[in-house]
């Protein structure tokens, strides 16, 4: 029972953090943006009416509330059914529920791509500006952090090889796990490369905002790589050393960590206090004194 | 340190790019050994075709304003500031003027000059 209680606490934390705390922060940020930077003064920021974006925010809020309810139903059903002898089920619930929790964030990400595409289409500026310096990985993340990511990933790889022992069987779970690790790191590398050298999604974005965004994104992905490799190794250790009672707790904790890093990164990038909103004004408006809230 | 190009300007885009980099060199904002962005990075930032940026870089390298050091990237040439003042097109024009004057003094007609020039350019005479 104490194991279950620990899982309940961690799962409640998962429900609260991923579907209440971070979404409410995102909505607060959005509300401030709409209030301080209205469409009349910042027309380039709004591809559609402010009401359209308000509706999107409402849908986002309602979706998260529904997901909280689903989480509570899952929690009560686990408590009612008492899966204390089957930790795989609890672990499975935590994982599946996590994917449901990330649906609003995923939808938000998809809509942002569409938003930037509309922005690029509406951009009638004929001049284009670029900062004339090289951008390298280590301009955005410390070499020590990258080295740590390499060490943890290699360490995880060697740990699995040691468990096998030092034989790669393509039918084994370890092989699948290692391939997942390699593929996820490759995906991170592609995203990092795109952020550093790829096209600007927002055609108006200030160069310092772009650098800040790239820094946050790259650092977050490197940290996620470290966390993923540590998680896989510890999870395998839990399996091998028959600590199954900790499996669901550890799984939920890890998923919360991933969600927290991802959503915190979104919040940091979109922090209205740090963004230069003058770039979204009409040219004629730029001659007026800037709002106190812009920098 | 930024460069700005006008996609609807009268000057070709690669020429605008070259001119801006030369201005940064002569203005002291880019110095010998300073690294330039890769062709891909600059093309993405300016939303240009990579070939446009590659052409600009190729011509700047020909004029010894920049130098490419393989995988390490592209850098400002040690003699970039001096070379910025050298206009290769002016040099070609002045050389041609000298040569054409010589031919005319020797009695060669303009059409004979044009035919010979065309043959040499098209590698018909080696």
Keywords:
heterodimer; A: mainly alpha; 69% helix; 2% strand; B: 126 residues; mainly alpha; three-stranded antiparallel sheet; 4 strands; 10% strand
Summarize the structure.
The complex is a heterodimer of chains A (295) and B (126). With 295 residues, chain A is mainly α.
Mean pLDDT of chain A: 87
How would you name the oligomeric state of the polypeptide chains in this document? heterodimer
Task: Give the helix proportion of chain A (percent range).
Answer: 55-70%
Radius of gyration of chain A, Cα only, in angstroms?
22 Å
State the end-to-end distance of chain B.
47 Å
Number of helices of chain A: 8
The largest chain-to-chain contact, stated as pair and per-chain residue counts, equals: A-B, 17 and 25 residues
Low-confidence sequence ranges of chain A: 288-295
Shape of chain B: elongated
Low-confidence parts of chain B: none
Residue-averaged pLDDT of chain B: 90
The number of helical segments of chain B is 6
Query: Structural class from helices and strands of chain A?
Result: mainly alpha
Approximately what portion of the residues of chain A adopt beta-strand conformation? under 5%
What is the N-to-C succession of helices and strands of chain B? EHEHHEEHHH
How many strands, which pairing sense, and closed or not: the largest β-sheet of chain B? 3 strands, antiparallel
Content-based structural category of chain B: mainly alpha
String of helices and strands of chain A? HHHHEHHHH
